[in-house]
Amino acid sequence: MMTNKQLKxxxxxxxxxxxxxxxxxxxxxTGLGKLANEIENPIEAHYNHIPFFPLATVEFHTxxxxxxxxxxxxxxxxxxxxxVYEGYDLMDVTYPIRVMHQLGIKKxxxxxxxxxxxxxxxxxxxxxIEDHINLQGGSPLAFxxxxxxxxxxxxxxxxxxxxxxxxxxxIAKKENITLKEGVYASVVGxxxxxxxxxxxxxxxxxxxxxxxxxxxxIVANHLxxxxxxxxxxxxxxxxxxxxxxxxxxxxEIAEKTEPKMVRLFRELxxxx
Length: 272
Fold this sequence. Notes:
Layout: H1 4-16, E1 24-28, E2 40-46, E3 64-70, E4 73-79, H2 90-103, E5 107-116, E6 126-135, H3 162-175, E7 179-187, H4 195-204, E8 208-210, H5 214-222, E9 227-236, H6 247-271
Parallel strand pairs: 1-4, 1-5, 5-9, 6-7, 7-8
Antiparallel strand pairs: 2-3, 3-4, 5-8, 6-9
Helix pairs in contact: 1-2, 2-5, 3-6
Protein name: Purine nucleoside phosphorylase
Enzyme class: transferase
Family: Belongs to the PNP/MTAP phosphorylase family.
């Protein structure tokens, strides 16, 4: 069970390291860690040093919070996130979001790598998430004392902030960057989907599928924290023409597309 005392201890540790009133939180997904290199005057805190933080276990997630300046705003960046498929529960997965909120962030940006279900979208495209389907079989709000942290019955009629989404669409047009919009389905993983599962996801109305993001977005809404999320589409999930997946290629495509995502985030942060 999570307590306010634990959250306070985690937050106090980061404040003592110099994490001073960040305005924005940014979560970096698989293959999308380079934005962290652009943070000015960075202060780092490794997850295994932060009290009550889970430990990162996935080899391509480095596992630290980075605090510093980005486009004149104080930011805290999560380089490496937690997943249910690593054996964490949904409270662990979302604990860092609660800590960033305690530190003072007013807005949250999330990125992930995902597979394109909608075949009008191609690998290397970016998709602004407009809505999601939670297929992780649980909720990060399903714990006894949740009411101590926010409303138990959190409204999800508009989980992704409309104003920031609109700004990103305008920025993408101006910068000549292709930015699709769509519905993201979040599954447990870590195995990839079968042909039949891809067909099911299409019927359900998903445009992309991944193994993260939705728990963090639910908690952001629980905390009344405006949130946006961008998926970098790293493979095309065509059940009629399915090839074995190449994880290395997925990471390479994410890395190649990342500079465009950074440009979108940078321009949006300038406007906030």
